[in-house]
Amino acid sequence: MKALYPGSFDPLTLGHLDLIKRANDLFGEIVIAVLENPSKKATFTLERRIEQIKHATRELSGIKVLSFKGLTVEFAEQQNVDLILRGLRAMSDFEYELQIAHTNRSLNNKFETVFLATDTHHSFLSSSLVKEVASFGGNVSHMVPSKVAEDLVNLNMI
Fold first, then answer.
1. Residue numbers of the domain that contains 87
2. Is 89 a catalytic residue?
């Protein structure tokens, strides 16, 4: 099976990476789809986020990292995937993620959304939280892959 894991990944967290590794054990191929959203001010460029993900997943097989804009289901169709993968950190994520899953299904009922619960060790992590901690000079090395932490330092966020 081929899964699509969409997100902005700005930045990639260890929670994202944990989900990718666990999904890699479940599915034959994972397309990590990095959203290009020009209306949002990203911390890292699209190209840098793709590089960060490729670096963090370099030892995994069956991983493809691509960018997309527009509707997730349209990109899923283009990539000929079997399902859309989403992570759940807490109950608060469930309502939002379920709404997105239902919306995607209403747009193209070919795709099911599969949810994986984040490992409890990473359940507090979010990209927003990482950026906030980094902006105040906090240590985020236990929250993000080493390359991301290095990039945050280079942006003078830490």
1. 2-120
2. yes
